[in-house]
Amino acid sequence: MAEEECELSDEQKKEIAKWFLYNAPSGEIQYIAKDLRSVLNDDKLYDEATSEAFPLYNKSHLICLELPCRSGDVLITPYNELEENQFIEPRTAQIVTIDHVKQACTEVRPAADEELASPYVEEFRCALDAEILKYVEEAYPKGVCSVYCVDGKDAEGPGCNFEFAVVIAAARNSPKNFCNGSWRSVWNIKFKEDALEIKGKLQVDAHYFEEGNVQLDAEQECQDGTIFQLHLAKCLTSPKILLQAPDDCAISIANIIRHHEAEYLKSLETSYSNLSDKTFKDLRRKLPVTRTLFPWHNTLQFSLTRDIQKELGIGK
């Protein structure tokens, strides 16, 4: 029995467009946005979809934007967002305003004192930032990183709790060679009176689309803070030294991050090196090339549309 034709509402079209934008592979959202503009054929819907989807995509993919006059870079993350479209770049103590849809910086100003961490916290942040920068330069070609104070930025001395987010991102986009990919890792580090807790989330994605469509989307979470505390105990005489020696603390944390990221990369290499050529070929799916306009009036004939509607909870 043929399925009943269904004309999608403007709201449903917008939600589907947002889904495609938000789920775009690394480095490909602008290409998808361009195609969606043609498919929607409605500038108002397009503007609404992109204005809602791009900020989420940019922050979740930890994109890096160049500052005006090539004066540096700024990572776009949830951890350095001050307010809508404004992000702090702690290494240069600047506040950057960005255009999410254009993925470009539009304005830069010096950060006010109240927007920066206290001198005590900043000493730890700078020491850790220097060690992470050293590690990233060694481990990730064209990788970028930053350390943000996400809690307790006004702490003034030992005994105060504060928290950092270490963000590492590396993208390698080569659409002319039909492949794009990225590495993203975020480490939350909580400094407590007599302990240190570290939790990490690692994400790797890759997209190969030469005469086919193969995607890798892998994720690993490190949630056992006890393991890291024990690891630190081996590096330091006492956890309390952590709150007294920023340089020692930074070296220990960077070594922990280095170790666990290397182990994860090694596990990925082992897993995918065991895939045979036949397995890879079976994964490939020919991409159809057509100039047929998308039939919004009868979208339910496509299983993908039904799946997206189900996931978004629309069309019920």
Automatic annotation (TrEMBL):
Keyword Transport among UniProt keywords: no
GO molecular function, one term: actin filament binding
Gene3D superfamilies: F-actin capping protein, alpha subunit, F-actin capping protein, beta subunit
Assigned GO CC terms: cortical cytoskeleton; F-actin capping protein complex
Keywords on record: Actin capping, Actin-binding
GO biological processes: actin cytoskeleton organization; barbed-end actin filament capping
The organism's place on the tree of life at top rank: Eukaryota
UniProt keyword 4Fe-4S present: no
Annotated signal sequence range: none
Oligomer and partners: Heterodimer of an alpha and a beta subunit.
Similarity-based family: Belongs to the F-actin-capping protein alpha subunit family.
Function: F-actin-capping proteins bind in a Ca(2+)-independent manner to the fast growing ends of actin filaments (barbed end) thereby blocking the exchange of subunits at these ends. Unlike other capping proteins (such as gelsolin and severin), these proteins do not sever actin filaments.
The protein, known as: F-actin-capping protein subunit alpha
Species, as recorded: Linum tenue
